[in-house]
Amino acid sequence: MDWRELWEIRNRARALAAPGLDATPKAEVHRDGKWSVRVVLADDGTPATPAAPAPALPPVLLVPPLMVRPLVFDLQPDHSFVRLLRDRGLATYVLDLGQPDHRDRGARLDDYVLGILPAATDAVCAHAGAPRLSLVGYCLGGLFCLLHAAGHPGRVARLATVATPIDFSKMGFVGLLGAAAAGRVDPLVDALGVVPGWMATAGFQLLSGRRAVERVLELREHGTDEAFIRAYGAFSSWLGGLVPYPGEAFKQFLRELMQRNRAHDSWLTFGERRFDLGAVDCPVLAFAGRSDGIAPLESVVALRRHLPPERVSVRPAPGGHVGVLGGPQAPAAVWDPIARFLLEGLVPSA
């Protein structure tokens, strides 16, 4: 099988996966410009029935990182994190940060942490009729969730993160590269306005290294297995569909997080507000991919330095930065434990 045949299989994989991407029924409950919040519905399009009244069982909001579309939580009908949470009786909502363009070049991380996420949590609580909610964040989305909980005591019932680095100095080559790029890439970012999604996709592929090659070889080996091809297509579609990163936010990310490690030293400041992860007052469950070359276990486990052991649990799970959330072992290793963790917050009705 030559590369032309592999390319044809890849295209067929994406075509097979396309109907199932982000296919679980959802309804928009809030929109502000490009970002929105959607609630997950039953398969017939009607409101999902929660396992308990909203005051007893907080709703959950899933938060993706910048550049990543929320379909990462809903890859296929038979492989969907949102379906699992919904079917366990949790009122489930998904934050969609939209697709920035050159008009959003001035957006900063401040706008997401101080503006969008608080507004999104307000929208979820208002729609669910609940005084507080639970949060689940992937990668940088998990850090946004932790910062939100730190800045809003009593607001978050439970919080789970997946592949969320805390100590950016422990990110190995990726951390060194990001720290070295801080300031040096500003002229290029300013000229572009936003960092194109295709650049991030290329970066993921390069950083994946051997694993990226292995996946291509697996594609050749399983070229007649439709289930494998469809799963490959779902992964390929979301990774190939990364959206742009606002220029100012990207420069801030490199400078404040990658170079200065401000989240870990508790000196991350947005506007006039300083955020200390030690102020998070809810139980936290954090997952790290055992083969994650972007957010290694050492960078994730650093959360234990900020919170007492009775409040935080860090667990390794199979997969790399993508596979830990969306891979074939994710339902048993990550999704199910998160669902059980969120359901532990159930308070018996009076």
| CATH homologous group name | Alpha/Beta hydrolase fold, catalytic domain
CATH top level assignment: Alpha Beta
Order of strands, widest sheet: 1-2-6-3-7-8-13-14
Reading the helices and strands in chain order gives HEEEEEHEHEHEHHEHHHEHEEEHEHH
Low-confidence stretches: none
CATH-derived architecture: 3-Layer(aba) Sandwich
Largest sheet: number of strands, sense, barrel closure: 8 strands, mixed
Count of helical regions? 13
Secondary structure: number of strands: 14
Shape: globular
Which percent band covers the strand fraction? 15-25%
Number of domains: 1
Terminal Cα span: 65 Å
Whole-number mean pLDDT = 89
CATH topology: Rossmann fold
